[in-house]
Amino acid sequence: MAHGERLGAMAEVSRGEPALSRREAESGRREAGLSQGEPVLEARSLYRFFRAGDEETLALQGVSLSLSAGEFVAVSGPSGSGKSTLLACLAGLDDPDGGTVRILGERLSHRPEPERARLRSRRIGVLMQTGNLLAHLTLAQHIVLCRRLAGRPQRRRSSVKELLASVGLADHEHAYPGRLSGGEAARAGLAVALANDPAVLLADEPTGELDTATELQILALLEERRSRGRAVLVASHSPAVTAAAGRVLKLRDGKAI
Ligand SMILES: Nc1ncnc2c1ncn2[C@@H]1O[C@H](COP(=O)(O)OP(=O)(O)OP(=O)(O)O)[C@@H](O)[C@H]1O
C-alpha cells in the first residue's frame, strides 16, 4: 500500500468515516473553486538576508517553488537551512528582500502588512509547532474569531462543531487550550488553521513535539486536505513527513538542492 493510501486508511480509522471517493474529492475542489493541478502558491527567486552588526546571514538565496491544488509538498533540510524563513515568506508573515510570492495569482509579497494579513486570513492556513492557540479563548471562539477576521459571514453554528469533529475534537467546542493534551492541542491548532477552508495550508514543524501515533494522525488529516484538492506544504525534519509528501523540496544554506 502506498504511503498516501496508508495515511488515508488511518484517517478513516481515526474518524470512523469512509475515505474520500474520487467524486467527493472532485466536489471538494469545486467547493474551493480550484481545479486539480492549478497553481495555488508560486514563489519566484526568493532572497532573504538578515544583518546583525557586521554579520550577514543569507537565509534564502533564490528559492523558487510552485505548489498546486491537490499537492502535499515537504520542505526538508538541516537546521539553519532556511525552512522557517521560507514558510514565513510564503505565508506573508515576513517579506522577502528579493523575489515574489503569489497566492492564486495575486501578489502577496511587497505589500503593506494589512493587505498581506487580509490575503493570508482568506487564503492561507498557518500551523506552527506550538503557539497556535490563545489561552483565554475556547476552541469555538478561536474558529469564530478567525472567520470574523477574514470578513466571512458567520456560517451555521454547527459548522464549528463539524470542523472540530473533522480533527476528532467534536466534544471540545468549549474547551480552553490549557485543558488539552499535546495531541489534542496540535489537532485544535489544525482546526483553527482550517477555519476559513484555505486553499493552502503551510505548516512549520507541526509534528515536532508529538509522539509517533499523534504525528500519524496529523499527517492523515493533512493528506485528507490534499485529497480534497487543497495544497499542503510542511517544513519538517521528520522522516514520516517527507515520506507522506508527494514531493520534497530540499534546502541547504538557503538554496534549493
Ligand atoms: N530574525 C532573524 N535574524 C537573524 N538571523 C535569522 C533570523 N531568522 C533566521 N535567521 C537565520 O537564518 C538562517 C535560516 O534560519 P531558519 O530558521 O529559516 O532555518 P531552519 O531551516 O528553519 O532551521 P530549524 O530547522 O533549526 O528551524 C539561520 O542561519 C538563522 O540563524
From TrEMBL:
CDD domains: ABC_MJ0796_LolCDE_FtsE
Residue ranges of the region described as Disordered: 1-36
Keywords: ATP-binding, Nucleotide-binding, Transport
One Pfam family, short name: ABC_tran
GO cellular component: plasma membrane
InterPro entries assigned: AAA+_ATPase, ABC_transporter-like_ATP-bd, ABC_transporter-like_CS, ABC_transpr_LolD-like, MacB-like_ATP-bd, P-loop_NTPase
PROSITE patterns: ABC_TRANSPORTER_1 (PS00211), ABC_TRANSPORTER_2 (PS50893)
Ranges for domain ABC transporter: 41-257
GO MF annotations, alphabetized: ATP binding; ATP hydrolysis activity; transmembrane transporter activity
SUPFAM superfamilies (UniProt xref): P-loop containing nucleoside triphosphate hydrolases (SSF52540)
Ranges of biased composition (kind: Basic and acidic residues): 20-32
Protein family per UniProt: Belongs to the ABC transporter superfamily.
Name of the protein described by the UniProt record: ABC transporter ATP-binding protein
